[in-house]
Design a protein that fits this description.
This protein is mainly α and 242 residues long. 52% of the residues lie in helices and 7% in strands.
Amino acid sequence: MPKSLPGFIGFPDKKMKQVIVPDLFFTDLLPQIDDLAELKLTIYIFWLLNEQSGDLRYLRGDDLRKDETLLRSLNLESDLRTPLSTLEDALERAVARHTLLRMEVETGEGAAAISEDWYFLNTAKGRQAVAMIRQGRLAELQKIIPDEARLTVDRPNVFILYEQNIGLMTELIAEQLRDMEKNYPPDWIQEAFEIAVSNNKRALRYIQAVLKRWETEGKDEDYGGSGQYSEEKRRREFFSAE
């Protein structure tokens, strides 16, 4: 009998953003993919590129290696490798299968120059971008690639914060987390979770109380100019959020 697996909380009733996946993925590419990590990476990349805007879209290897959601999905129980090693292998497979086009790109000048691996989906626009890079027209290309093409992956979303620091979610909690994400800045939410953990108050209602207090009384003064949340302020937060 298979062991019990973590349950999915379900999709909300609210209208969700749709992700476009080309039909050829299902008819031509999917039958060829024989590696679970490569399959997960390929589907995830469709979502990442869908989140970007503009005609030219691409992914940086370093951004993918910092993406906690992607790495968690590649932490396969049957795989003895680290998620990073699994990611590197999945990237190699996707490039070898020509799903992705990889380019080694040098950005910056002089001592500040760095080498990066960029990934384009193997579409007409992706092939055009790679051709421009090979022709030495990187500067021209960078003018038309939007700034937002660089992923923001350093900050975990509110669901990950909850699961890592509090526990399993229910549908009710998920709805509250979605509301929290709409009403408060991401850095406030992350700081509130950190305060709850440091005060050993791992409950959503405590985090909500901290955020509500900042909303009504202000938060800037909490930082004494140093950008660091003081221990004295943490103790005050401990009692005021009770």
